[in-house]
Amino acid sequence: MNEVGVFLEVNDLELHRGGARVLSIPSFSLQEREVLSLIGPNGAGKSTLLLTLARLLPATSGSFRCRGEEIVSNSAIFAYRRRLGMVFQEPLLFDGTVFSNVASGLKIRGMAEKEIRERVMATLELFGMTQLAERSARKLSGGEAQRTSLARAFAIRPEVIFLDEPFIALDPPTRQTLMDDLERILRETGTAAVLATHDQLEALRLSSRMVVMNCGEMVQSGSPEEVISRPGNEFVASFVGMENVLTGTVIDSRDGLVRLAVGGRQIEIAGSAEPGDSAVFCIRPEHVTIDTLDPSGDTSARNVFPASISRVIPNGIFHKIHLDCGFRLVAYLTGQSIANLNLAEGKKVFASFKATAVHLIRTRQLDEAAG
Ligand SMILES: Nc1ncnc2c1ncn2[C@@H]1O[C@H](COP(=O)(O)OP(=O)(O)OP(=O)(O)O)[C@@H](O)[C@H]1O
């Protein structure tokens, strides 16, 4: 069997800058071939962590092991860095052709001319850009320049590639195409990657594990689907677009169903909790359904509420519908669905969601909650 090992293991990492602690990571590991995304708001520490993991920024304290070997001495750090590729927001190409940019890492490694030519052409082929080989880097579009920068990083056949918001400056179609190609190339080459991004869709598209960062700490780690549908706290919930974070009081809990009092209504959710506790829970807006007629007889959803539409906010493909059901709820609907249902502000509708669509973030005893 082909066992996947740990490529990088980091423990007790701290980094202080300008007198402040900007990273505090008790432990972190990256598997071979794993594609991991670091997501978090501006200033969360994503770029700093990437640079620290790449040993380009010295940590204040902490231990680093690559395939079980400590990376301490300058020669070990140097050898470790040679196994890595890095791509930043800016392509950082030098004057010269696409070919010479992609060849640069190979030249530094002392590879023979013939091998360089073969490797560069194979890499350009992988990125679908052989026709650009002799083009001056100055004459590239933003997308082509970032593609060249990625090809340069992949040409050395790195074991891990660190990507710091590589798509942030690109227009949506270019971003999508490059992301699709990167996903294929990572899969085909088996290269591990750490991607810093603030965009959860990029994380969903590319990574198998997502780590949410806030204030220099890793606050949740899991598959992107898990983090997005089961956030561990209110910060993660709001960062991943969980617009409906609500608080209620547990009425009773039996057979895997919890009944909560919320804004004068009762909600049923999957889980268990102590009666009398205060509960914080969340519902993804895309899991809320809107009907103009009472769907109670026709839906398996346990939670159906009469509601009035308080706001309709156009928001790209999906529009945000703010509902007042006794508590506030946001639903996402396409413009087409809004037109079909003839929805508008002030209209009376029914909002419904399944008990399993609700994620219980945490419960607290009510006297604790008050204190
Ligand atoms: N050279 C520096 N000196 C002191 N503090 C710094 C320095 N560079 C970054 N910081 C601080 O480190 C923290 C993390 O910054 P970092 O750029 O890593 O965050 P980020 O998550 O990558 O944010 P962004 O998405 O805005 O790039 C911030 O509080 C920032 O102010």
UniProtKB/TrEMBL annotation:
<dbReference type="InterPro" id="IPR050093">
    <property type="entry name" value="ABC_SmlMolc_Importer"/>
</dbReference>
<dbReference type="GO" id="GO:0005524">
    <property type="term" value="F:ATP binding"/>
</dbReference>
<keyword id="KW-0500">Molybdenum</keyword>
<dbReference type="InterPro" id="IPR004606">
    <property type="entry name" value="Mop_domain"/>
</dbReference>
<keyword id="KW-0813">Transport</keyword>
<keyword id="KW-0067">ATP-binding</keyword>
<dbReference type="InterPro" id="IPR003439">
    <property type="entry name" value="ABC_transporter-like_ATP-bd"/>
</dbReference>
<dbReference type="InterPro" id="IPR005116">
    <property type="entry name" value="Transp-assoc_OB_typ1"/>
</dbReference>
<keyword id="KW-0547">Nucleotide-binding</keyword>
<feature type="domain" description="Mop">
    <location>
        <begin position="298"/>
        <end position="362"/>
    </location>
</feature>
<dbReference type="InterPro" id="IPR008995">
    <property type="entry name" value="Mo/tungstate-bd_C_term_dom"/>
</dbReference>
<dbReference type="InterPro" id="IPR027417">
    <property type="entry name" value="P-loop_NTPase"/>
</dbReference>
<dbReference type="Pfam" id="PF03459">
    <property type="entry name" value="TOBE"/>
</dbReference>
<protein>
    <submittedName>
        <fullName>ABC transporter ATP-binding protein</fullName>
    </submittedName>
</protein>
<dbReference type="GO" id="GO:0015689">
    <property type="term" value="P:molybdate ion transport"/>
</dbReference>
<dbReference type="InterPro" id="IPR003593">
    <property type="entry name" value="AAA+_ATPase"/>
</dbReference>
<feature type="domain" description="ABC transporter">
    <location>
        <begin position="8"/>
        <end position="240"/>
    </location>
</feature>
<dbReference type="GO" id="GO:0016887">
    <property type="term" value="F:ATP hydrolysis activity"/>
</dbReference>
<dbReference type="Pfam" id="PF00005">
    <property type="entry name" value="ABC_tran"/>
</dbReference>
